[in-house]
Amino acid sequence: MSTLPFVAHVLDWYDENARDLPWRTDDASPWGVLVSEIMLQQTPVSRVLPAWDAWLTRWPTPAAMAADEPGEAVRMWGRLGYPRRALRLHECAVAITSQHGGELPTDLDALLALPGVGAYTARAVASFAYRQRHAVVDTNVRRVLSRVVTGVADSAPGSAARDLALAEPLVPVDPAVAARYAVAVMELGALVCTARAPRCADCPVVADCAWFRAGKPAYDGPVRRAQGYAGTDRQVRGRLLAVLRDASGPVPQSALDVVWHEPVQRARALDGLVTDGLVDPLPDGTFALPGARV
């Protein structure tokens, strides 16, 4: 496959079809980009949009967030899921404020050193916020490149080294073009080259797609197991956190006991929240969000 036509087709398609998302605008702050990337992990755009807007309205800068309690981050996180991400964002804000003068660092290694920021997030922020040249590979990009380049319906569970080796040769040399390509190919995977119902007739690179030319063979590799929710400790944790988010102060054990009928599972879920730093057990036997002023 020729790199130049592939990139050009993806960029032309993006110019016509990109969604109007606030963290992609020219005036989006690096902090806003980081918040979006953390929120978008395993969470659809439709749910992130109002949460992102509320977050940036309350905490427009890392310093504003660092000055608030971590429990307020958990409260604002609401029902986005995986609330430890809220604590990581608060930790990031504290580190950015104390170590980088309140400005998100531009260097990839410095971004990687921030709490809770992994390889994907660091590359995404460096690319989308600072227009640097990096291979940025999320689930959507991995699927597009797997189909187009290797002819496989979907990639096996992610491998950073394998993903980057596949993506890097396609990244344009010019940093600004590379940054736009990074978000464009991601958008293509989100809107057209989807997992369950790819719209091949609308794909700008279908002529280059090895998977399409092979007749779209079914994927027969290792399967990612979908995580259940109903009846799991995750559901119990969510209900316990909901009580604490809705409360104006610490809550007694009795207020938590009513949210789930099975005491052993309920206690295990609460212990997990305490271990993860999402709930503070207080000396008087009540519970609160972390850092709550009592």
List the helices and strands and how they pair.
Layout: H1 3-17, H2 30-39, H3 45-58, H4 62-66, H5 70-77, H6 84-99, H7 108-112, H8 119-130, H9 139-150, H10 160-167, H11 175-191, H12 210-213, H13 233-246, H14 253-257, H15 263-275, E1 280-281, E2 287-288
Antiparallel strand pairs: 1-2
Low-confidence stretches: none
Helix-and-strand structural type: mainly alpha
Gap between N and C termini:
62 Å
Radius of gyration: 21 Å
Mean pLDDT: 93
Query: Given the structure, what is the number of helices?
Result: 15
Globally, the shape reads globular
| Strand order in the sheet with the most strands | 1-2
Biggest sheet overview: 2 strands, antiparallel
Q: Which band does the percent of strand residues land in?
A: under 5%
State the share of residues found in helices, binned by percent.
40-55%
Number of strands: 2
Q: Helices and strands, in N-to-C order?
A: HHHHHHHHHHHHHHHEE
Please tag this protein with its features.
single chain, two-stranded antiparallel sheet, 294 residues
In short:
This protein has 294 residues and is mostly helical.
